[in-house]
Write a structure and sequence with these properties.
Immunoglobulin-like; four-stranded mixed sheet; 297 residues; 27 strands; 48% strand; mainly beta
Length: 297
């Protein structure tokens, strides 16, 4: 079926070009007949009304945002008889999203990813991996040029806002960004296995009774979020555990021990860390020493 339509996207040729950028020099209209099209150079050769040859530099290249007006064949998916192309500023509020760079290009589930480009909306940018919507939906972009998020773990149903229990597989995947302005180009990203879960902290510092205590137990590796707990022993009275809180889907943060212990002694405890199907434990001791009385003179 053929119908007249105004189409936004990527087109390489038209009859009338209408730019939106400001120019220092006055604009001039040139009439002529196209004699040669040099797409690689991005130029047209024409013969003007006086019969003189002239080179016209095309006002677009790959990833130029534009609107095109013509007859659209929705069976062949072709826009024909184009009468107008409007070049659009890449920072326009309705610009189609474009990914220019992804960093890093590979990582484990939960890796912090930054994408640079144009056409990102202030809110509700969604990730599609292999053309499937994934868990990090509604990602904001303050400047419309960058997006940052943790590599999602499982595909989601955007309408029901539910995610499946199937993890993303290892290997290369095709990633794109979608928002109210459309879908971006595709860029590859490789998911690699996470290293084995291991604890980085071997011991905890001692503390003087009735003084502030603040210590951390750190870990690395693991495929999912961290869950810390004491499986044996007890903390000194006045000290508590604080689990890390993250906005990302995968949260691999330190365990914090904080507070003011009141009773001197040695407190032995076994700490357990779970990440997905992995679990490790380690024995720790917190020594609370008696404060030294300073003689008064």
């Amino acid at each position: 079926m053929r119908k007249s339509i105004l189409f936004s996207g990527f087109v390489m040729f038209a009859v009338l070009f209408t730019g939106t950028e400001a120019h220092a020099a006055p604009l001039k209209t040139i009439d002529g007949i196209i004699t040669q099209i040099n797409l690689q150079e991005g130029t047209l050769l024409i013969r003007d009304r006086n019969g003189s040859p002239m080179t016209i530099k095309l006002p677009f290249a790959v990833n130029t945002n534009l609107s095109a007006k013509g007859i659209f064949d929705d069976v062949k998916n072709i826009l024909d008889n184009v009468t107008e192309i409007k070049i659009k500023n890449a920072t326009a509020t309705d610009a189609i999203p474009i990914i220019s760079r992804i960093y890093p290009g590979s990582g484990t589930i939960g890796t912090k990813i930054t994408i640079t480009g144009t056409g990102f909306t202030k809110r509700n940018n969604s990730i599609f991996i292999d053309n499937v919507p994934y868990a990090s939906m509604g990602i904001p972009s303050k400047d419309g040029l960058t997006l940052s998020f943790g590599l999602p773990i499982a595909p989601c149903d955007q309408r029901q806002k539910k995610c499946s229990g199937t993890d993303i597989s290892f290997g290369e995947h095709q990633l794109l960004i979608a928002n109210s302005n459309g879908r971006s180009n595709i860029i590859p990203f490789t998911v690699v296995p996470s290293p084995a879960l291991s604890l980085l902290t071997d011991s905890l510092p001692q503390v003087v009774a009735k003084t502030q205590y603040n210590a951390k137990i750190s870990a690395t590796g693991g495929s999912k979020s961290y869950f810390w707990q004491i499986v044996e022993g007890n903390l000194p009275r006045g000290i508590r555990l604080i689990q890390s809180y993250c906005l990302d889907l995968i949260c691999r943060g330190d365990l914090t021990l904080v507070g003011v212990p009141t009773i001197p002694g040695k407190y032995d405890l076994k700490i357990s860390l779970t990440s997905g199907s992995e679990n490790i434990t380690r024995q720790f001791s917190i020594v609370v020493v008696q404060p030294i009385n300073t003689p008064q003179y």
